[in-house]
Amino acid sequence: MQLDMNLLTALDALLEEGSVAGAAARLHVTAPAMSRSLGRIRKATGDQILVRTGRSMVPTTRALAMRAQVHALVQQAHHLLSAQQELDLPALDRVFTLRWHDALTAACGTALITAVHRQAPGVRLRLTAEPGTDDAELRRGEVDLESSSSPPALPDIRHRLVGSDHLVVAVRPGHPLTEGPLGIERYAAAEHLTVSRRGSLRDPIDDALTTRGLERRVVAAGPTAAFALQLALGSDLVVTVPDAVTRAARHRLGLTTLALPLPLPEVPLYLLWHQRYDDDRAHTWLRDLAAETAQALFTPPTASRQPLTNRTGQ
User: Fold this and answer.
1) Starting at the edge strand that comes first in sequence, how are the strands of the sheet with 123-128 ordered?
2) Alpha carbon 15 to chain centroid, angstroms
3) How far apart are CA 72 and CA 89, in angstroms?
4) What is the distance in angstroms between the CA of the first residue and the CA of the last residue of the chain?
5) Pseudo-torsion of CA 244, 249, 254, 257, nearest 10°?
6) Per-residue confidence at 299, pLDDT binned at 50, 70, 90?
7) Cα(55)–Cα(249) distance, rounded to whole angstroms?
8) Rounded CA separation 210/64 (Å)
9) What is the pLDDT of residues 234-273, one digit of tens each?
10) Which of 57, 107, 188, 283 is deepest in the core (most CB within 10 A)?
11) Is beta strand 267-274 parallel, antiparallel or unpaired with respect to 145-148?
12) Global pTM value
């Protein structure tokens, strides 16, 4: 049976007002239109709903039994379809999937999880590995929020610039590169480690060196920044990483940070999501909280800044 859902609103008004004229005035329709709605309701339910007693109308036994349920259904429908729903964070029960770069997750994942749990204890976060750009997962709704170093190419993928990072060089304490100024030739002559989930032994640094007639020797590729930093700690390998998102990890490992003797553009950090979530208040809350948490990486307290050792030599 096909039932016009508008009949529920009409039925609710009829049961609340107890008259066709009152229900018509409540819904801002004419009395004849409301009478037609009552006729359709009687046909759909097989019940008179309202019956005349003298000069007034009274609800039938069935109408009285369904009145509370009808009113609840109408209220739920209005709440569901309302564009101005209030976000009740303490009652929010939802799972969000975040696909972020491993260094970003390591740098602010704990702070984000803590903030989310404090504000919305019913929300759970699924932090997945970053396998590379796959806008299809965003479009299918399998990923709610993604990190990226470039804006999306597709018009239905939204983006928000969180901050910009610059590259630094990380080496073990006492590494030969820490002795004297670090020039571009000394940097290129060292043995390097790249960070690449796909195992690539080349990145934009190599292209920049090539334009200057230089070539570095990359002897290994690590899948994550955490792995690469740990490897650099136990060897003479040099790893070049974004400063802000690896600052805490470098400090924790006791690595020495050097300025990169190669002018390169800063690395932007974007958060990406599908346009279906533009007006989703819970998603808006999450991405605002995620952006705020990530932005804290780019504006650390002055006292916590780790000075660069041996800045670029001329």
Assistant:
1) 123-128, 94-99, 145-148, 267-274, 157-165
2) 45
3) 23
4) 83
5) -30
6) confident
7) 82
8) 83
9) 999 999 999 999 999 999 999 999 999 999 999 999 999 9
10) 107
11) antiparallel
12) 0.69
